[in-house]
Specification:
The complex is a heterodimer.
Chain A (H helix, E strand, L loop, with lengths): L2 H26 L10 H13 L2 H33 L1 H16 L6 H8 L3 H25 L3 H9 L4 H39 L3 H11 L3 H31 L1
Helix pairs in contact in A: 2-10, 3-4, 3-6, 3-8, 3-9, 4-6, 5-6, 6-8, 7-8, 8-9, 8-10, 9-10
Chain B lengths: L1 H8 L9 H23 L10 H12 L2 H34 L1 H14 L8 H8 L3 H25 L3 H9 L4 H38 L5 H10 L3 H43 L1
Helix pairs in contact in B: 3-11, 4-5, 4-7, 4-9, 4-10, 6-7, 7-9, 9-10, 9-11, 10-11
The chains are: A mainly alpha, B mainly alpha.
């Protein structure tokens, strides 16, 4: 058995032990069921959420808003990134600002949009959009700036017009860098949207966790949290896969 | 673009401003003018877009109000304690996982599974465990800070020069000495990066926990003003929160750069000598 397999076995075995220990600790009465729901009840609650279609609806709500926000962020971020590259001075002037904004706790700006747009999905979409569009702009500019001069010279030797050069040479070669921005945007946007759903008691997966807590449905709350963790994990893996696929093409 | 070229030629006459700085100044003025125009236009319900003068007046009022500093102190205390706990645990476990590689790879499975999730989602569990008071806010900050610190420490441990470890072993170092004399000095750079990110997310985590449910702190203050529809006050608190968060991030970046410049050649020197 190689080390990779051993690690896998150890992860699964430790998980089984953890689950069994949690179940035992609650059943014996060492841990209050109001603090830790026994895994058997969490499982039941999880099945309820799946069968009762509550989970499906929450999933669609969250992913729907996330994808709309990302589509908007790409639609606006890409041309803006191009403009920042095309008009160098503006690019240099705004780069630092965008970088600072990217590192800033943008999530805490949400009351601002809540006031302007009201307590509705618009706030979620705008917050998701703001989160995603900044890395997309920055990386689009960076990608276009770092296109290899050799490729540009080849394009010029074929007498390509500026427009053809942009579409046939620059964008394709900048795609891996641009997607780094899109990837960051996609991950941060999902996180921001789930967090806001939880904070604002909206629909969606984040809202589901909050609702379970408010109703003091402890097994349901743990089940909902596990679903959120799993969704984020799978989403993260898919985005990474797209990235490595783009790099290999 | 032609316009900018003209300005460049005439730059000798007036005040010398780089074109970038000029763009920044004009943009700031443009944004401010747009904001004022929106606030004066009457298109928005009262105070949704308050005049910047009202916001700055509110900011000034807060900055001289002792009560405001009580909230600021509460948040600072929660962030400081949470960040310290979370980053110390992250650092300790990171070193342990780096030394015991098998355990480290098993735990990697758990950490990497939890890392992409928004940490706020664990807030209900923390509120059950630590109550709805400052305890859960501190725990939220600790959980937030833990992940970037442990991940960067483990990554840094993999890059520790094994020759240094062997040399230290041949000197019969105790485990504690090994940590303080070999691992920590080699880890400075990755750990500082992890701490910078960790402090940033600890601030966000703590403030979000305050916003969700609390009766003190800047997050509470902001959301209370929202509920009372005192929008200029809300904006003032958000400005303070943003200024602090970005200031802290800038300080940590500076620290990162300085230690990076100072730390790197030293490590390179030592490894070169070995």
């Amino acid at each position: 058995m190689n080390t990779g397999m051993k690690v896998m076995v150890a992860v699964v075995a430790s998980l089984v032990v953890l689950v069994a220990a949690a179940e035992g600790a609650v059943q014996v009465g060492w841990v209050s069921p109001f603090i830790l729901a026994p895994p058997s009840q969490i499982w039941e609650a999880a099945v309820d959420l799946v069968v009762g279609e509550k989970l499906g609806q929450a999933f669609i709500d969250t992913i729907g808003v996330t994808l709309i926000a990302i589509a908007l962020a790409i639609g606006i971020g890409l041309p803006c990134g191009w403009a920042l590259w095309r008009f160098e001075r503006y690019g240099r002037a705004y780069e630092g600002w965008l970088g600072a904004l990217f590192a800033s706790p943008k999530l805490l700006l949400y009351p601002l949009f809540l006031v302007m747009l009201g307590r509705n999905l618009g706030t979620l979409v705008v917050m998701g959009f703001v989160t995603a569009t900044i890395p997309i702009m920055l990386k689009t500019r960076e990608g276009l700036m770092t296109v290899s001069p050799v490729l540009l010279n080849v394009g010029r030797s074929f007498n390509l017009s500026q427009r053809q050069l942009l579409w046939k040479v620059m964008f394709p070669s900048a795609v891996p860098v641009i997607f780094t921005g899109i990837r960051l945007g996609m991950i941060y946007t999902l996180i921001a949207i789930i967090a806001l759903e939880f904070l604002l008691d909206f629909e969606g997966l984040g809202g589901m966790v909050g609702e379970m807590y408010d109703r003091y449905n402890i097994p349901g709350m743990y089940a909902a949290i596990i679903f959120v963790v799993l969704l984020c994990l799978v989403y993260f893996q898919i985005v990474q896969k797209i990235q490595s696929w783009l790099r290999s093409v | 673009m032609a316009e900018i070229g003209l300005e460049k030629r005439s730059a000798g006459f007036g005040v010398r401003l780089s074109p970038e700085l000029r763009i920044q100044l004009f943009s700031l003025m443009g944004i401010w003018a747009l904001w004022e125009a929106m606030s004066q236009s009457g298109l928005f319900y009262r105070d949704i877009v308050p005049s910047s003068f009202k916001v700055f007046a509110a900011l000034g009022r807060h900055l001289v109000d002792p009560g405001f500093y009580v909230h600021l102190g509460t948040t600072a205390y929660e962030v400081a304690v949470g960040f310290t706990i979370g980053s110390l645990i992250g650092l300790g476990l990171g070193i342990l996982f780096g030394v015991r590689r098998f355990l480290g790879r098993v735990m990697d499975g758990y950490i990497l599974a939890l890392a992409p999730a928004p940490k706020v989602i664990f807030l209900p569990i923390l509120m059950i465990l630590f109550g709805v008071g400052p305890g859960s806010k501190i725990a939220m900050g600790a959980v937030s800070a833990f992940f970037p610190v442990v991940l960067s420490t483990v990554a840094g441990m993999l890059l520790v020069n094994q020759t240094l470890v062997k040399v230290a072993e041949s000197f019969n170092t105790s485990p504690l000495q090994m940590v303080t004399k070999v691992y920590l000095p080699s880890l400075v750079l990755p750990v500082i990066t992890g701490l910078r990110i960790g402090l940033g997310v600890a601030i966000i985590g703590t403030l979000i926990a305050e916003i969700k449910l609390s009766n003190a702190g800047l997050g509470f203050l902001a959301i209370q003003y929202y509920d009372l529809f005192q929008i200029p006050d809300m904006y003032a608190v958000i400005i303070v929160i943003f200024a602090i968060a970005m200031g802290v991030n800038m300080l940590m970046s500076r620290l990162n750069d300085r230690l990076g410049r100072r730390g790197m050649p030293a490590t390179a020197e030592v490894s070169g000598a070995a």
